[in-house]
Structure formats: C-alpha cells, structure tokens
C-alpha cells in the first residue's frame, strides 16, 4: 500500500490553507513522521517549496497523479501533536494562515528554507571519509538518497549533526574533546624521540602522560587555553596519531554567569502566601485546568508563590511554563527562576541570538529543560506534561502580538491548560479589566495577596499639580517637591527611580520660524530625534535621515529640538543635581544585547543614585535601597483617544510606585501631573485597585466598551487612497448585510496613522456580545481579499484589538 503525506506547503494563500497529498517514496518511508518539515514540488513547473507534514495516510482522495515528496528536512519532528493541533486552533481564532501559525511556533532558525548540512560529530575515520571526504561538512542536497538516509540515521544516533546554514554559519554548536591514542608509556617513548626544540610538542606529550585513555577526555578549548597550545600543534598531534578529536553537539548558554552559583532555598512563606500556594497546588494535584487570578499588591511576594508552585510541579515529575512580559523585565526574573532551579530552566525571549534560541528550544523539545521562562512566543514552548502555566504581569499589552497571527499569549495558555489538564495562574498587582471581570463572574478564581511582605506599608503617593500657577518653584520638568525629595535621597545615599512616560510623546525637530516639523516620507508621522546617532528616524518603517541644519521649508536656521526625550531630561537633571550619578534606560541605551541587564546590575550595585527611564523601568524591579519614585509626566497617555487610556495610566502609576520602599526602608512617591483630579490618578494615589476597577467598569459599561463587549478591528490598506476608502465602505456594507443588528460598528475611519509604509489605511471596529455569524463572515471576507490582493489590497483582522484607534 502506498504511503501518502498530507502537507501544508509554505505558500500562504487561502487556496493552500489545507493539506496537499504527496506520495512518500520508499526510501523515506519509515523515516517520515508527522510534524517534520519536507521539500515538495508545488504548482506547475518544478518550483520547490518547504512544507509541514500534518498527517500520514494510506489513501488519497485526490484522483490525479500524486507528486512524490522530495526530501525530509528534519531528523525528528519539530512540531509534536499538541503543537499541530494548537496551530490549527490558532489559525482559526486569529484568522491567519495555518502555515504562518506553525512558523510562529518555531524558532527563527527553523523558519527559513536554509540549506541543510550535515557535520560529523563522533564518526569513525572510515565513516568520515565515506560521507565527508576531507571536508568538515556537507550540503545534504549534494548527496545521493542512500547517503542522505544513512546520515539521517547517524544524526538520530547522535553521531552527526544536521543543521541549517544561513549566511554560511553552522547552527549546531560543537565542542571538541581530545581522545588520547597513546598509553602513558607510549607518550614517554614519543617524548624521547621528539626534537628537543619542539617545545610545544614536548609539553603536550608530558601533559598526555597524565591522561589515561578511558578517563580523561579534555576539552580542546581547555587544553589550548591552559597550555597555550595552538591549533597547529594539536593538528600535528592528530596527524601523528597521538590524538583524536571528537566533536559533540552542545548548547549556547545565554546566562553563563548563573551557571556556577549555588541554588537558592525556598523562603518560609507568609500565611497569605501559604494559603495561595496551597490552593494552586491542590488544582495542580487534581489536574484541574482552572484559571487563578492572583491579585497581589506590589511587593507582596508573588514571585515566591510562583517558585514554590513550580517546585511542587517539578517534584511530581511535571514541567512548568512561565511567561513574563518583555526582556526589560526578565533579567531579575530569570535570575530568580534560574537561581532556584538552575540548569532545569530554559529561557526564551527576543534578546537571545538565533543560535541561543534554537539551542534553548532544543533543550525544551528534548525534555532536558523542565521550566521555561519567556516572553510572549514562549507560550508555544514544546514542553511536555505541563503541570502549571504562569503569566506574570498578566495585564501587560506586550502579550498580544500586533502582527499576524494576532494572538494573545493568555488565550494560548488557557487553551494549552485544557490539553494538559493543568491550572493557569495569572498574576498582577493591577489585573487587566478583562481578567478581573472574569474573576467577578467566577470564570476565574480570584486569589489575593493584599499586603506587602513583612507588612511594609505601600509607599505614600504625593500628587504634584503642574498646572500654571500651582507649580511654584518648578525648574523645567522638575517640581520643587520632587527636586527636594531627590536631594534628600542623595544626602542619605538612598536610590531613586524616575519615570518618563513616553507614550504618545517623542522628541522631534521643529522650525521656530515657520513651524515645519520633519516628517517621514513614507508614513504620516513625525520623525523622532536620536541624539546618539544625530539622526531623525521613523519608528514605523525605519527611514533615517540627518538632522537638517536649515529648515527645508523656509530656509531659517532656527531649527530646534522639542519634546521630553529621556536624553533631554537626563541633561536637565544633571544640571540641577551636578553630583548625582544618573543611569538612563530607554530604547537607545538598551539596544545592545544584554543592555537591560547591564544597566540594572549597575544600579543594583549602587553605581548610580538615580535610574531614569521610560515605561521599561516601571515593573518588576526589586531593589531594596530604592526609597523614592518620581513620575515626571503622569498624563501623557490620558490625552490619547483610547478607551484603555485610564486603565493604562492607573496600571503604570501603581506599578512604578510599587518600586519604592520594598525592603526595610520606607518609600515615597511623587507624581507630577496636569490632571490632578482625574480618577485614574486619584485611585493610583491611594493604590486602590479594587476602587479603580469598579469605577472603570462603570465607564466601560456606559461606553459599551470591553469587557462588556467583544470587539474585532478590520483594516484595509492600499497605496492609492481612493481605492482604500472605496474598499472599506463596500466592506462596511457587506458586514451590515451579513451580521445581525446587535453588532455595533465604529467607522469606517482612517487608521490612527493614516499612511504607513506608503499604504493608506482605513478601518472598522465591530463590538458585539454574541455574534454566531461573525467568524464565517470574516473568513469569507478574507477569501475575497485573496482575489483582490492581486489589485494590491491588504486586509487585516485583529480579534480583541488593544485599542480601537
Ligand atoms: N515569604 C517571604 N519571606 C521573606 N521575603 C520574601 C518572601 N516572599 C517574598 N519575599 C521578598 O519580598 C520581595 C518582594 O517580592 P516579589 O518581588 O516576589 O513581589 P511581587 O509581588 O512580585 O512584586 P511586584 O508585583 O511589585 O513585582 C522580594 O525581595 C522577595 O524576595
Ligand atoms: Zn516611516
């Protein structure tokens, strides 16, 4: 009977969003498994594309002649059954192509159609010559079928590494061991024969005398380092038959500094922590896919709760998946989790190199790591037997991906929890309104930690009115009370954190004479000033240009910089407090790899008095000597036409306030604002989450906003503005015709940035309680666009968008 592989080809279109059948040639039969990537011929001619095997069957419904499958790319499946099922669910719920969803789950290195190469690890000389000749690696497509199969088998036995070369770099990292071929006596014998001036060889031989053939296999790098031996000396020894080199696959360790530290011990829990841990552990033991919302004030010890739940899960032989919002937050969190569980932890976030990500991913897939800490995409970590899912700072917007597939990591965890029969813990001091509302309806179970560790009070928050006439003694961006508080901290050798709220705010260049503002030629947005490179940049399309000396519009030389950039505030502050040591943390200072960790470590080691930064300093940081938090501009987000503006402002202020007074010294917070009476600011002053929740729910109810309604945003773009406008109006009509009356439609309106990358954008937002026809209608619209995409349209569908603008 024929073997047939059902393959999703990597050609994302509506027509190819289902499997195609391919005949599996006998040579690949047996090696082929579901979840492996393959090469197939697709369409007319001999176009070759990669694809994913989603099923292997004996019969095809297709009555034409089947094409043969050309090759298998992987020695083992890269997607397991759970991941395949999950990818299908993801495609359906985010209106994305199945293949795009599968790609999203894989590390970058497995996404590309790279050249497949084999490299020897532990081969006999014979085998080496047979497959590699004199070379160190071989491209698989240059070999015969039989040779390829043989190499795949050797790869499964760990004797050959198969990897994918992009830009000529091998992807599997190797280490070499030296295998002595001489007994100590033979080494001594050789020593006597070697010329006396061959100093390095003599040294190597006397070193070799101390090895015993079975027990000592030193690492090449170690020998080179310790004995100052060059590659050439080792190679000579190999040629003379004294030594053999044996390669082994190894992993890159993104956190080598944490490797040799002793593990930390669990802290004795407070009664409140104890109660929470007990409840979660009970659900873990009972395999209950319950969702807990852990609402714990800042500094209430949520992290210790997570760690002890994870410990319990590991003890039961299961694994744990923990998500954290973004890399800025991970250094301290990674330290804590790795500090407790050591090498059992794998880390996944965008700050790692492609190679590091690939290695961490393999350690997870192979079951060598049992705890995963990572950002959004780690929701797809291929852990097996997951006993608990944790999402820290669950209100963070970075958990939602803003490009296709537009998924929310929380939904992925809830879905996987059903599959693994394991609970989910969503933790935050300021839960999203959506989650808190679900807890209200008992969809989630609410757990609370209302007190800080050691019963430290939350720091008092002073609101500083910055409006004209109120702000006496203010110097530029700093009010008198905030400046005094900063000076006091300097005297006491305590530390301060200063937040510059940059949302909707950036530095730009303007002509004082004619008002000209430098704009991006491709997007309707002003260019942002970057003082480190002395250029203007577009944050949307990457366009970059020099700062003009004269105004391109009127020729005046009165070009000035505007806006409150972190660099500008840093300069102000340094002038006001010349003795203060200031560390700045923003996109510019953290661009380089490990930038966040470097700055935070320096601050932790008291190399600075003040940490000045954007939103990235607001959350998660735990520094005992920080006793002052200052917010320079609380309300930049409040002015935005966004129904989540109040929620975001409240969350930000509460989170950043929570950085003060976390240990034994009491803290204090100053919030500078132009809206001192706004309820978001007033509730943040009292750090009253529950109060804010009730008032904000009333506001949302009145405006028919989430969480009272579900929502979907639909956008259309085209290079021609009239075309885009026409398309959105016909789409609006189609939606009205197909959907029920209870669906509310906002728009059509131009996108918040009306032109992006030279495309004009129009959009519609739908709000609804329950709309059975929606999924089908949107699917239909997508299918139609596939046809109209030939005319240059792009349609995007964003389920539960972060904002309506
Ligand atoms: N049971 C405990 N005994 C003593 N110290 C504890 C205990 N639990 C936590 N801590 C310490 O209290 C501090 C605050 O805890 P943690 O950082 O976990 O709070 P959190 O709730 O995650 O705060 P945030 O939401 O502000 O990030 C940490 O330094 C932590 O080591
Ligand atoms: Zn641009």
UniProtKB/TrEMBL annotation:
Record EC number: 5.6.2.4
One of the GO biological process terms: DNA replication initiation
Start and end residues of each Helicase ATP-binding domain: 283-449
Catalytic activity: ATP + H2O = ADP + phosphate + H(+); Couples ATP hydrolysis with the unwinding of duplex DNA by translocating in the 3'-5' direction
Domain Helicase C-terminal: residue ranges: 546-700
Pfam annotation, one family: PriA_3primeBD
Nucleotide-binding keyword on record: yes
Cofactor: binding details: Binds 2 zinc ions per subunit.
Catalytic EC class: isomerase
Signal sequence, start to end: none
Binding of Zn(2+) 1, residues: 511, 514, 551, 554
Residues holding Zn(2+) 2: 520, 523, 538, 541
Cellular component GO terms held in the UniProt record: primosome complex
Keywords: ATP-binding, DNA replication, DNA-binding, Helicase, Hydrolase, Isomerase, Metal-binding, Nucleotide-binding, Primosome, Zinc
GO molecular function: 3'-5' DNA helicase activity; ATP binding; DNA binding; hydrolase activity; zinc ion binding
Cofactor: Zn(2+)
Protein family: Belongs to the helicase family. PriA subfamily.
Role: Initiates the restart of stalled replication forks, which reloads the replicative helicase on sites other than the origin of replication. Recognizes and binds to abandoned replication forks and remodels them to uncover a helicase loading site. Promotes assembly of the primosome at these replication forks.
Subunit comment: Component of the replication restart primosome.
Record protein name field: Replication restart protein PriA
Organism the protein comes from: Lacticaseibacillus chiayiensis
Lineage, top ranks: Bacteria, Bacillati, Bacillota, Bacilli, Lactobacillales
């Amino acid at each position: 009977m024929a073997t047939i592989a059902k393959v999703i080809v990597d050609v994302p279109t509506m027509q190819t969003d289902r499997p195609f059948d391919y005949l599996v040639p006998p040579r690949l039969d047996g090696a082929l498994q579901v979840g492996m990537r393959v090469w197939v011929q697709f369409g007319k001619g001999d176009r070759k594309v990669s694809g994913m095997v989603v099923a292997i069957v004996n019969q095809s419904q297709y009555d034409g002649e089947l094409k043969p499958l050309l090759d298998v790319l992987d020695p083992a499946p890269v997607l397991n059954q759970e991941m395949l099922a999950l990818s299908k669910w993801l495609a359906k719920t985010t209106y994305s192509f199945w293949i795009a969803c599968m790609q999203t789950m894989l590390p970058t290195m497995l996404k590309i159609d790279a050249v497949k190469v084999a490299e020897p690890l532990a081969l006999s000389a014979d085998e080496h010559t047979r497959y590699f000749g004199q070379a160190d690696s071989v491209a698989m497509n240059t070999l015969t079928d039989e040779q390829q199969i043989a190499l795949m088998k050797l790869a499964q036995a760990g004797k050959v590494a198969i990897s994918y070369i992009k830009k000529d770099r091998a992807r599997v990292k190797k280490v070499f061991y030296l295998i002595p071929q001489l007994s100590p006596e033979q080494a001594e014998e050789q020593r006597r024969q070697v010329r006396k001036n061959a100093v390095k060889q003599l040294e190597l031989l006397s070193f070799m005398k101390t090895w015993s053939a079975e027990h000592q296999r030193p690492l090449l790098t170690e020998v080179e380092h310790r004995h100052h031996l060059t590659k050439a000396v080792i190679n000579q020894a190999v040629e003379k038959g004294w030594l053999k080199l044996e390669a082994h696959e190894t992993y890159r360790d993104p956190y080598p500094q944490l490797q040799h530290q002793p593990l930390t011990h669990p802290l004795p829990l407070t009664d409140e922590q104890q109660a929470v841990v007990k409840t979660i552990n009970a659900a873990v033991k009972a395999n209950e896919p319950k969702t807990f919302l852990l609402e714990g004030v800042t500094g209430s010890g949520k992290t210790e709760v997570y760690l002890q739940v994870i410990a319990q899960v590991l003890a039961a032989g299961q694994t744990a998946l923990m998500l954290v919002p973004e890399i800025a937050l991970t250094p301290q969190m990674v330290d804590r989790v790795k500090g407790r569980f050591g090498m059992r932890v794998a880390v996944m976030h965008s700050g790692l190199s492609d190679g590091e990500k690939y290695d961490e991913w393999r350690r997870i897939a192979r079951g060598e790591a049992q705890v995963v800490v990572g950002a959004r995409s780690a929701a797809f970590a291929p852990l097996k037997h997951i006993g608990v899912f944790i999402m820290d700072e669950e209100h963070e917007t970075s958990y939602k991906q803003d490009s296709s597939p537009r998924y929310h990591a929380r939904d992925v965890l809830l879905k996987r929890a059903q599959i693994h029969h394991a609970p989910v813990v969503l933790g935050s001091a300021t839960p999203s309104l959506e989650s808190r509302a679900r807890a209200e309806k008992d969809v989630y179970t609410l757990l609370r930690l209302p007190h800080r560790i050691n019963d430290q009070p939350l720091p008092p928050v002073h609101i500083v009115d910055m409006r004209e006439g109120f702000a006496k003694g203010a110097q530029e961006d700093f009010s008198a009370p905030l400046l005094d508080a900063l000076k006091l901290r300097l005297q006491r050798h305590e530390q301060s954190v200063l937040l510059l709220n940059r949302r909707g705010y950036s530095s730009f260049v303007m002509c004082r004479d004619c008002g000209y503002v430098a704009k991006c030629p491709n997007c309707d947005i002003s260019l942002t000033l970057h003082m480190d490179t002395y250029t203007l940049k577009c944050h949307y399309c990457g366009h970059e240009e020099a700062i003009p000396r004269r105004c391109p519009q009127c020729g005046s030389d009165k070009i000035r910089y505007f806006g409150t950039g972190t660099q500008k505030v840093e300069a102000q502050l340094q002038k006001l407090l010349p003795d203060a040591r200031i560390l700045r943390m923003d996109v510019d200072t953290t661009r380089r790899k490990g930038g966040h960790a470097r700055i935070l470590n320096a601050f932790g080691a008291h190399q600075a008095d003040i940490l000045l930064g954007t939103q990235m300093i607001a959350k998660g940081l735990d520094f005992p000597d920080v006793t002052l938090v200052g917010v320079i501009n609380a309300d930049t987000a409040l002015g935005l036409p966004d129904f989540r503006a109040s929620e975001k402002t409240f969350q930000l202020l509460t989170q950043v306030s929570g950085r003060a007074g976390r240990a034994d010294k009491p803290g204090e917070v100053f919030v500078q604002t132009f809206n001192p009476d706004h309820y978001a600011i007033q509730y943040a002053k009292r750090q009253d989450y529950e109060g804010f929740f009730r008032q904000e729910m009333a506001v949302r109810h009145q405006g028919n906003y989430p969480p009272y309604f579900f929502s979907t945003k639909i956008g259309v773009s085209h290079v021609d503005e009239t075309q885009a406008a026409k398309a959105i109006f016909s789409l609006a009509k189609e939606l009205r015709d197909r959907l029920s009356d209870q669906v509310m439609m906002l728009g059509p309106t131009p996108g918040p940035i009306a032109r992006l990358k030279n495309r004009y954008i129009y959009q519609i937002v739908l709000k609804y309680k329950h709309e059975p026809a929606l999924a089908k209608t949107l699917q239909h619209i997508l299918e139609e666009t596939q046809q109209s995409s030939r005319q240059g349209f792009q349609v995007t569908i964003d389920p539960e968008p972060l904002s309506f603008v």
